[in-house]
């Protein structure tokens, strides 16, 4: 049988700070991997407003928040729902020295890709094994 | 590396199986086709329906939507970036190939369906066929 996908719901998280909105925050599914030059973070955030995406790196903690616009549901009466659209928020500790000036983020088809280039001084030294 | 199994996995599996039964054709005209990917929401807008689906990472060219009668079929795939030459710290996303059919409570006018796919969300506007629209009955 082809690819059986396990359905999981996004985990709900408490918002970082209290806001006037009642909307919920969910934790987006995330992949993190590292190549020679950078740490790459990819997060599934379908339907978020580009302007609301906030990516910040403070003291080795990468925080990402993004919001969806609930007004797109105006005039629609729910009949059958399997998911709850809401905002996204997640943080990660980045254990590497990052060149902050060259961090880039790109949102494509609801996937946010953040590239955190490693600072030159942080490239790992290879230990010779004798 | 320590791998932890979710202690509620078995319970959730049982609940999902029960949910699947509750949503089977047995229980009358409703939206049928639960328990698959992608997750969808169906709304009513007047007499017509609006369907939304979350499809993060699916490109428009990899998405196929068909409408026939009272059924909507959504097909496609998405791949995650190939992490070759990279060391994986965390992997929660996966490649997905999906093909899901949903049955709606009324027949759809396929000629008048419109679809928009943006930022990983598919929105289908599904008008009901004229003859399937409810008629108001005047009471004498």
Notes on the structure:
The complex is a heterodimer of chains A (130) and B (140). By secondary structure, chain A is an all-beta fold. Chain A has a domain at 23-70 and 83-122: Immunoglobulin-like (Sandwich). Chain A has strands spanning 12-13, 25-26, 30-34, 38-44, 54-58, 61-66, 77-81, 87-93, 104-108, 111-117. In chain A, β3 and β4 (38-44) form a beta hairpin. The termini of chain A are far apart. The model of chain A has no long low-confidence stretch (mean pLDDT 83). Chain B is mainly beta. Chain B has a domain at 30-80 and 94-132: Immunoglobulin-like. Chain B is built from 1 helix and 8 strands; from the N terminus they run αββββββββ. In chain B, strands 1-2-8-7 form a 4-stranded antiparallel beta sheet, with no helix packed on it. Chain A binds chain B through residues 2-3, 5, 7, 29-36, 39-40, 42, 44-48, 50, 73, 75-83, 85, 107, 109-111, 113, and chain B through 16, 30-31, 34-37, 39-45, 49-50, 52, 54-60, 80-81, 83, 85-98, 105, 119-121.
Mean pLDDT of chain A: 83
Strand content of chain B: 35-45%
- The portion of residues assigned to helices of chain A is under 10%
CATH class of the domain at 30-80 and 94-132 in chain B: Mainly Beta
Q: Write down the Rg of chain B.
A: 19 Å
Q: What share of residues of chain B is helical? A: 10-25%
Features:
heterodimer, A: 130 residues, mainly beta, Immunoglobulin-like, four-stranded antiparallel β-sheet, elongated, B: 140 residues, three-stranded antiparallel β-sheet, 1 helix
Please sum up the structure shown.
The complex is a heterodimer of chains A (130) and B (140). By secondary structure, chain A is mainly β. Chain A contains no helices and 10 strands.
Blueprint of the fold:
The complex is a heterodimer of chains A (130) and B (140).
Chain A: E1 12-13, E2 25-26, E3 30-34, E4 38-44, E5 54-58, E6 61-66, E7 77-81, E8 87-93, E9 104-108, E10 111-117
Parallel strand pairs in A: 2-8
Antiparallel strand pairs in A: 1-2, 3-4, 4-10, 5-6, 6-8, 9-10
Chain B: H1 9-22, E1 40-45, E2 48-54, E3 63-68, E4 71-78, E5 87-91, E6 96-103, E7 114-118, E8 121-126
Antiparallel strand pairs in B: 1-2, 2-8, 3-4, 4-6, 7-8
């Amino acid at each position: 049988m082809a690819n059986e996908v396990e359905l999981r719901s996004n985990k709900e998280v408490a918002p970082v700070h209290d806001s006037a909105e009642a909307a919920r925050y969910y934790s987006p599914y995330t992949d993190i991997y590292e190549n020679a030059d950078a740490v790459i973070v990819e997060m599934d955030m379908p339907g978020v407003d580009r302007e609301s995406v906030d990516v910040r790196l403070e003291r080795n903690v990468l925080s990402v928040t993004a919001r969806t616009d609930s007004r797109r549901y105006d005039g629609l009466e729910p009949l059958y729902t399997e998911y709850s659209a809401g905002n996204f928020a997640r943080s990660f500790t980045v254990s590497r020295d990052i060149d902050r000036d060259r961090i880039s983020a790109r949102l494509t088809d609801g996937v946010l890709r953040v590239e955190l280039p490693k600072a030159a001084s942080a490239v790992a030294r290879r230990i010779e094994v004798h | 590396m320590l791998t932890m199994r979710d202690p509620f996995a078995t319970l959730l599996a049982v609940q999902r199986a029960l949910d699947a039964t509750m949503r089977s054709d047995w229980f009358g005209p409703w939206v049928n086709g639960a328990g698959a990917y992608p997750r969808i929401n169906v709304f009513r807008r007047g007499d017509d329906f609006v369907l939304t689906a979350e499809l993060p990472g699916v490109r428009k060219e990899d998405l196929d939507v068909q409408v026939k009668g009272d059924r909507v079929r959504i097909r496609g795939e998405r791949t995650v970036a190939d992490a070759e030459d990279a060391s994986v710290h965390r992997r929660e996303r996966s490649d997905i190939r999906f093909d899901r059919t949903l049955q709606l409570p009324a027949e759809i006018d396929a000629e008048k369906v419109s679809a928009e796919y943006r930022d990983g969300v598919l929105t289908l506007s599904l008008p009901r066929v004229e003859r399937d629209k409810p008629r108001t009955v005047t009471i004498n």
